[in-house]
Amino acid sequence: MKRLAMLSAATVLAATMMTPAKAEPAPRGALIMIGGALSDGNSEIYREIVRQAGGPRARIGVITAASIPPSQDPEAGTSKAANSVSNGRFYVDILKKYGAGGAQWLPVDLDHAAAADSPELARQVASMTGFVFGGGDQYRLVTTLLHGAAHTDSRVLAAIRARFAQGAVVAGTSAGAQIQSGPDMVTGGASYQALRDGSHPGYFEDDTTLAYLPAGGFGLFHDGLIDTHFSANGRLGRAVRLAADTGHQRVFGLDPDTALEVTGTSLRVLGRHGVSVIDLRAADTGTRRGRWAISGVRWTYLTRGARYDPGTWTYRMSPDVVRLAPVDRAAASPVEDIFDSAAADRKGFRLTRAALDLAGAARSTTVLGMTYETNPVFVVDLRKGNGFSAYGAGAAIAFADLTVSMYSSPRQP
Question: Hey, what domains does the chain have and what are their CATH numbers?
Answer without folding.
Answer: 13-287 (3.40.50.880)
